[in-house]
Amino acid sequence: MSLQYHLKIKEGDIAPYVLLPGDPARVDVVASHWDEAKLVADNREYRTYTGVYKGVPISCTSTGIGCPSTAIAMEELARAGAKTFIRIGTCGTLQDHVEIGDMIIADAATRHEGTSHLYAPPEFPAVASHDVVQAAVDAAEKLAFSSHVGITRSADTFYACHSRPGSSFNNFWQSNWQNFFEDLKRLNVVGAEMEASVIFVLARIWGLKAGAISVALDNVLEVTGESGFFDPQGGISHSADHIDKLALMGCETIRKLHEGK
């Protein structure tokens, strides 16, 4: 089997279980928790390690930001032998009871993005695999991490759709953005990120498994604030400890999933 075009991996390079952070630098953080780790490939936004975590074969590949690059990673990882995909990333929360640093375990995702719609119609649900969700819940309990299970909003945009002017260049704003996040909050959507939906859809249509864990770094509604301007630098936590905890929870989720086979 030749090297995959973007990831530069081949069959035999990848474990059945793969963690999917967005940032390539976070792959190194994940691999630092393993007993064995080998850099397999590093190309564009895609950085891949394969190794062993507490006796379990494991891989980690960064996806970059958003659903298009994530779909590319999943296509090529699946061809190389990956069977279970677990997104580990950061998110905002829409719910006041979620604290900064809490883990959000997504059991489903809204499809506010375009990539998954090119694979399946809008009526097709974006849902996680039950056993992956349960493994994540068990991992959070073992690690004594505060966690919440619920729906995440996956979208193609970071700046657009915030409720007040200031969310994008030159204060561009649309009136139909005003209640977007408030409406999601009323629908009990817990998190807001950019990748989970396509991971869930692709895994389902291919007969594979998927899950998603995100650490909450901000409250989306509070980042915009009463003053009327969106200020991610002023409102989002960038603690390295949050990322390290996320990496550890991803690894433990895979171990729990492997134990339950």
Provide the fold topology.
Blueprint: E1 17-20, H1 24-31, E2 36-43, E3 46-53, E4 56-61, H2 67-79, E5 84-93, E6 103-112, E7 126-127, H3 130-143, E8 147-155, H4 180-186, E9 189-193, H5 196-206, E10 209-219, H6 220-224, H7 232-235, H8 240-259
Parallel strand pairs: 1-4, 1-5, 5-10, 6-8, 8-9
Antiparallel strand pairs: 2-3, 3-4, 5-9, 6-7, 6-10
Helix pairs in contact: 1-8, 2-5, 3-8
Walkthrough of the structure:
The chain is of the alpha/beta class. It has one domain (17-259): 3-Layer(aba) Sandwich (Rossmann fold), CATH 3.40.50. The protein has eight helices and ten strands. Strands 5-9-8-6-10 form a five-stranded mixed β-barrel, surrounded by four helices.
In short:
The protein has 261 residues and is of the alpha/beta class.
Question: Under the CATH scheme, which class?
Answer: Alpha Beta
CA-to-CA gap between the ends?
28 Å
Shape: globular
| Unreliable sequence segments | none
The largest sheet, given as strand count, sense and whether it forms a barrel, is: 5 strands, mixed, barrel
Oligomer: single chain
How would you classify the helix and strand content by structural class?
alpha/beta
Q: What's the helix count?
A: 8
Spatial arrangement of strands, main beta sheet: 5-9-8-6-10
Q: Classify the helix fraction into a percent range.
A: 25-40%
* Average pLDDT, all residues: 94
- DSSP summary, beta strand count: 10
| CATH topology assignment | Rossmann fold
In CATH, what is the homologous superfamily?
Answer: Nucleoside phosphorylase domain
Order of helices and strands: EHEEEHEEEHEHEHEHHH
